[in-house]
Amino acid sequence: MEIKLLQLLSQHNALSIGQLSQALELNTLQTLAIIARINKLKAGSVISHGSNYTLSYPLNWLNQNKIEELLQAQKLDYQVHLLSQTDSTNSYALKHINQLANKTIVSCDWQYAGRGRFGRHWLSSIAHDLTASIIYDFPADFNLQLLPLLCAVAVNRLLKNYRISNQIKWPNDIYQANSKLKISGILVENIFRDQINHSVIGIGIDNLANWERNQLLVDLVASLDHLINEFKLFGFALLRREWLDNCLHLKHNVKILQHGAIIARGIHSDIGEHGELIVQTATGIQNFSSSAISLRLD
């Protein structure tokens, strides 16, 4: 109902509580409760002027036809599966993986329970931030260990094109340069079936400058598509260098954690040919590649 109410207010300059309640087929108290939930998600989204309610800022809705036109203009052969809202685009894609083809984009106007590594939540603003999952089918010999790092380079390039200076934190978190602000998260999940790797690449991007979301989504897909094709043609060597050149913590002191406990400290010196983290510790070089570990600047 949150989405429906916001869409109604997007289509009209102002509506009374009675008009909103009638359109939603709810009573006044139920409608006011929805407005309260929306404003709890983002304070001041719906404001009242006397007896009327309006949006405090314009919303940035996704549009199926516009996305398909933009994909065609960039010669990107992808299918589009739009949802008004879902708990997690990755969860939706995994649940419906048998019905969704290779190169399918799943996106929504509101992801209310997005997932990150270690079960962390990714909070997104309704019809503002971008949340999407892209499904790819890869052959059995495709190096899935590198996929999170490849995605990080793709998002790094995209945000640079949008004039946002940013850096990569191992393996694939994106931070605004010279700040502690995480502006993009990536979660890659894989299912191996019938000698095919079905990969779901979930990406969330904070819409820092209120970019037009349909264009942002297509530009994200284009960046990811180009990156994967580069990897298939030329391998990881050049992309590895690009990842390192944009790394937040290269040559810095870091600590490695597993299940919340510090298991190593040292200087981050490199990444390996399979994307593993290479750290110079007091006892020598150590490599870390497990998805169960995390890194922090020390």
Fold topology:
Layout: H1 2-11, E1 15-16, H2 17-24, H3 28-41, E2 46-49, E3 52-55, H4 64-73, E4 79-86, H5 89-95, E5 104-111, E6 114-115, E7 121-122, E8 130-139, H6 147-161, E9 166-169, E10 173-176, E11 182-193, E12 196-205, H7 213-234, H8 237-245, E13 253-258, E14 261-271, E15 277-281, E16 284-288, E17 293-297
General description of the model:
The protein is of the alpha+beta class and 298 residues long. It has three domains: 2-55, Orthogonal Bundle (Arc Repressor Mutant, subunit A); 64-245, BirA Bifunctional Protein, domain 2 (2-Layer Sandwich); 253-297, SH3 type barrels (Roll). Helices cover 32% and strands 34% of the residues. The strands form four sheets. The protein has a seven-stranded mixed sheet with strand order 4-5-8-12-11-10-9, sandwiched between helices. A five-stranded antiparallel sheet has the order 16-15-14-13-17, with no helix packed on it. Strand 11 (182-193) and strand 12 form a beta hairpin. It is globular and about 70 Å long. The termini are far apart.
